[in-house]
Design brief:
Elements: H1 9-23, E1 44-60, E2 63-76, E3 81-86, E4 98-102, H2 115-123, H3 132-139, H4 148-163, E5 167-170, H5 173-188, E6 199-202, E7 205-209, E8 213-221, E9 228-232, E10 241-243, E11 252-253, E12 258-262, E13 270-281, E14 287-290, E15 299-304, E16 306-318, E17 324-331, E18 336-343, E19 349-353, E20 356-360, E21 365-371, E22 377-383, E23 389-395, H6 450-478
Parallel strand pairs: 7-16
Antiparallel strand pairs: 1-2, 1-4, 1-5, 2-3, 3-15, 4-14, 6-8, 8-12, 9-11, 9-13, 10-12, 13-16, 14-15, 17-18, 18-21, 19-20, 22-23
Helix pairs in contact: 1-6, 2-4, 2-5, 3-5, 4-5
């Protein structure tokens, strides 16, 4: 079961047709692989399945449709596990999708005045509050009737109310009562601020002359003192060190610390990477965005075990000439990617960016915003002297998706949402509330639009096949 956005139907159908042609051996297409690292640092994870959840009625305009919603699990790269809910109802997702930790300003919450209310719900409901009896008492429902599935569905419904601005009501009466309680209390609760990143560094790119100290880099983390380890890449040249502002070699950092890369005098032109790693719990309310080329639904963290979090810094130096550095960050407010480019050398640095030439004077720094369309995968490389190359890639995901077509727009024979199986429990790899029989989707927000997609794709395949048939027939007649 997929959820479909109005703006994406034609594009998805066309992609399905192309996939069919590739499978038939007619054409071969290779798209760019998207990176799964976190740009400024944090947790990287792989999506599992919905572990608790149930059916939720969602009012969209003048109609009501039923969706399956609940709590996801994710496996952290390097060790650890996470729990998360969806904050993008009308977008699908899939088991095995890679996700990265991002700030609210890089996500669908960047302009959502109710983001703090969503965090309040996460802090005051399941699974952070694991005492279902206490939750039932607050919502004034039968404690014996409120299950984990009910609590997860209720929490997801309350979150969708604020993330997607829709009216929601879980099918189960106890879950519905809990949703009403959570929404009402969140509306009255004090504003919740954005949680701290598990680990981040700024900037992520350093440059300078040999014989100088490159930096500083500011470290931000919710990990305890001495937990975040610092190491240089094995190929770092002899004599290069990571030091604090006093020049002392360091192997760990704390929140708020500044670090530098010390390059000895006489060192040849070169580069090195600095890696940071710690084990900590990721804060409830942190957003996770997919790193796949094709956008998947955005998630928000509801729980964390001790998990591995990482960050990386690139350092480049030279004896003379231009010495460039590039940092980038998605800017949802401006609808693009902010590139901060600087030149720590003694000559001008000139580079091309999407058909335009830019010159950065020695010692200068400039921020350039590259416009990117919503849901667009971007991938470009900025080059400089001494083999410098910075790959900038990602998917701009700043807006929640709009609902799919109404039932009157779907092909005849397509089952309505009310006909979607809702038997409770979780399928082997499917969405909560239905068993997919070996499918590979793990999703919330899934409605019954798959037959429509298949119908459109099949129609396009038939049209293509018919065109080939008639062209061949015409050719034969001509001969």
């Amino acid at each position: 079961m997929f959820s479909v956005r109005r703006r994406g139907v034609a594009r998805l159908a066309a992609a399905t047709l192309v996939s069919g042609l590739v499978a038939a051996g007619s054409i071969a297409i290779a798209g760019p692989a998207m990176a799964d690292e976190v740009s400024t640092g944090g947790a990287a994870a792989t999506l599992g399945n919905v572990v608790d959840g149930g059916s939720i009625d969602v009012k969209v305009g003048d109609r009501t449709e039923t969706y399956n919603g609940g709590l996801f699990d994710l496996t952290v790269k390097g060790g650890g596990s996470l729990k998360a809910y969806c904050i993008d109802l009308f977008t699908k997702t899939k088991s095995g999708t890679s996700y990265k930790e991002v700030g609210w300003d890089e996500s669908t919450l960047h302009n959502n005045k109710n983001a703090g209310k969503i965090r309040w719900i996460l802090q005051n409901s399941y699974p952070e509050v694991n005492d279902l009896g206490a939750l039932a008492a607050k919502a004034k429902v039968n404690a014996k009737g409120l299950t984990k599935d009910d609590a997860a569905a209720a929490t997801q419904a309350a979150i969708w109310h604020f993330s997607d601005n829709v009216e929601t009501a879980p099918k189960d009466s106890d879950a519905n009562a809990l949703t009403k309680y959570l929404v009402a209390q969140a509306d009255k609760a004090p504003t919740q601020e954005e949680p701290k990143a598990s680990l981040s560094v700024s900037p992520t790119s350093l440059a300078g002359k040999s014989g100088t100290r490159l930096g500083p880099v500011k470290v931000s983390t919710n990990a305890g003192a001495g937990v975040t380890k610092v190491s240089l890449s094995a190929d770092a040249p002899q004599g290069v060190k990571v030091v604090d502002k006093a020049g002392k070699t360091i192997t760990s950092v704390n929140d708020g610390d500044e670090l530098y890369v010390d390059v000895p005098a006489g060192a040849g032109d070169g580069s090195a990477k600095v890696s940071l790693q710690s084990t900590t719990k990721v804060s409830i309310g942190r957003v996770f965005a997919s790193t796949t080329e094709k956008r998947q639904q955005t998630l928000i963290l509801a729980g964390s075990s001790d998990s591995t979090v990482t960050a990386q810094i690139d350092a480049t130096w030279a004896k003379q000439g231009a010495v460039p550095a590039v940092d980038f960050k998605e800017n949802c407010a401006k609808g693009g990617v902010d590139l901060t480019v600087s030149n720590k050398g003694d000559e001008d640095w000139t580079f091309d960016l999407k058909g335009q030439s830019h010159k950065i004077a020695p010692g200068a720094s400039e921020t350039i915003t590259v416009p990117v369309a919503e849901d667009e995968a971007y991938n470009f490389t900025i080059t400089g002297p001494n083999g410098f190359a910075k790959v900038v890639e990602g998917v701009l995901d700043c807006k929640t998706s709009t609902p799919g077509p109404s039932p009157s727009e779907t092909p005849s024979g397509t089952p309505s949402p009310s006909e979607t199986p809702a038997t409770g429990g979780t399928g082997t790899t499917g969405s909560t509330g239905s068993t997919t029989g070996g499918g590979d989707l793990a999703e919330t927000g899934g409605s019954s639009a798959t037959p429509m997609i298949a119908g459109v794709a099949a129609a396009l395949v038939l049209v293509g096949g018919g065109a080939v048939f008639f062209l061949r027939k015409k050719k034969t007649a001509g001969q």
